[in-house]
Sequence to fold (94 residues):
Amino acid sequence: MLKIKSKRQGAELTSILKDENEMLFDGKTFWNRQSPILFPIVGQIKEGKTQYWYQAIPGDHGTEVGAAIQKYMSGNIDREELAAEVENYWKGQE
Fold:
């Protein structure tokens, strides 16, 4: 059986139990978050871009957009402010 728990704000996963075995990082050791989508890419990216489904993603996308997502998940900005930050990021890429 699979049981999943998440935070109400931002739907950050807090537990994934498979047959009563925890499969997700505890969120207490080394880093106080758990969601795997929040981890940045570690190392270099070829030509500064990541390919994702035929779209080139700029190398700073994870840190820049990730920071906005962190602010939203911590309650420091609302959904509209998050959308504006993400939109402004992409406008700056044109």
Q: What stands out?
A: Residues 13 and 35 are 6 Å apart (CA to CA). Residues 61-73 form the longest helix (13 residues). The chain has a mean pLDDT of 77. The two ends are 46 Å apart (CA to CA).
